[in-house]
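> call design_seq(struct)
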């Protein structure tokens, strides 16, 4: 049995281009000891917000310039040390890092070595916004605790079980293989966690359940999970493919890019910015906050209503497609910021699908809760669930499961 002096704590780091989210968890009971966020790194208006949950103290906030990720993590380490939870503690077993793109090579959590880090770097061209920031966080953490196991948990890993028929694009195979062009999928830690928790909610084992997971936040993705294994997902080579998102277009005719280049004179970079940052809900109506869009809809705003309708139309298409892929569906699970909180989205996504066994109970759907729950009526053949995601816990569990055998040997 693992004892405290063998290390039962895991620090989870999610390093973005200008931010670091972190949580310190005790894996004996999965309790959170501290959580925090450093944002606007490299700007004069940097902010660190730290909540010392273990001591029950009030949240603390620092405002002022934080030059880079090294300075950010040193500031985080100082905050943890102030609570008696310093990075030098013998109870810290490992640091788990969210890494967005792991390609085909990484299908499971992996202890980070020089070779692993080099492979993550080789994947930068297919994740230019995410992997560089992840790498920076890893290198900084390694410098702070070079003796401690550092583990990469990949967003793409859960989707590596997709069959080739789902993962391959219908383009020349030599070109595809030479440039690693295929569907990788993202949000994998969330899809893994939510599909498993949905099975638990139904009182079944994951291997006995088929689930469609709808991860709906500013970024959005769907997955078809058969018996605990992903068999299809909406995001592809990059997180641009699939559902309508806050600022991303989702599915689009590839020839739109050629048309914009030839007719509008737009560069590749211009089109990249258009499709990733100026499209989706914000491109359709100027807002990417679903709460604001629904408020505008209620006031009769036609642009907001059209944006909402397009969002729901795409969502329904994926529900139907993945129903067909799975053949039998036990549950549909809504998760992430929009999925967990926007009752009108859940209601509209399922409306009209009664022949597929889907329905939402209006009273259950209106309840707000941070607990997993069913929102379908008892007579529905397919359960509709709201399952709050917990990517940090998933990363911590995968990290600890990997390093704890070594701690106990």
């Amino acid at each position: 049995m693992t004892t405290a002096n063998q290390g039962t704590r895991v620090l989870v780091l999610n390093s973005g281009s200008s931010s670091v989210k972190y949580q310190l968890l005790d894996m004996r009971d999965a309790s959170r000891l501290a959580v925090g966020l450093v944002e606007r790194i490299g700007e004069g208006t940097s902010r660190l917000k730290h909540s010392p949950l273990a001591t029950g103290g009030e949240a603390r906030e620092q405002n002022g310039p934080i030059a880079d990720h090294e300075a950010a993590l040193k500031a985080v380490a100082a905050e943890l040390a102030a609570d008696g939870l310093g990075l030098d503690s013998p109870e810290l077993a490992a640091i788990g890092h969210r890494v967005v793109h792991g390609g085909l090579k990484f299908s499971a959590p992996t202890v980070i070595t020089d070779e692993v880090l080099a492979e993550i770097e080789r994947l930068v061209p297919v994740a230019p916004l995410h992997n560089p920031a992840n790498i920076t966080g890893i290198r900084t953490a390694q410098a702070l605790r070079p003796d401690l196991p550092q583990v990469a948990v990949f967003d793409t890993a859960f989707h590596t079980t997709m069959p080739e028929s789902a993962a391959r694009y219908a383009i020349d195979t030599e070109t595809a293989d030479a440039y690693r062009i295929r569907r990788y999928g993202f949000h994998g830690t969330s899809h893994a966690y939510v599909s498993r928790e949905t099975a638990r909610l139904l009182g079944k084992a994951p291997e006995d359940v088929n689930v469609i997971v709808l991860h709906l936040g500013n970024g959005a993705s769907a997955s078809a999970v058969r018996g605990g294994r992903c068999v299809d997902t909406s995001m592809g080579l990059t997180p641009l493919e699939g559902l309508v998102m806050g600022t991303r277009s989702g599915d689009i005719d590839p020839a739109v890019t050629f048309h914009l280049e030839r007719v509008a004179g737009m560069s590749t970079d211009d089109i990249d910015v258009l499709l990733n940052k100026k499209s989706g809900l914000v491109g359709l109506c100027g807002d990417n906050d679903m709460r604001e869009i629904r408020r505008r809809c209620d006031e009769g705003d036609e642009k907001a209503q059209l944006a909402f309708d397009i969002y729901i139309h795409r969502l329904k298409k994926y529900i139907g497609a993945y129903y067909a892929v799975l053949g039998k569906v036990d549950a549909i699970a809504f998760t992430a910021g929009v999925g967990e909180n926007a009752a009108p989205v859940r209601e509209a996504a399922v409306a009209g699908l009664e022949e597929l066994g889907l329905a939402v109970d209006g009273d259950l759907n209106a309840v707000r809760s941070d607990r997993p729950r069913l929102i379908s009526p008892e007579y529905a053949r397919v359960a509709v669930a709201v399952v709050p995601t917990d990517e940090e816990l998933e990363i911590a569990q995968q990290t600890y499961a990997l390093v704890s055998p070594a701690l106990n040997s």
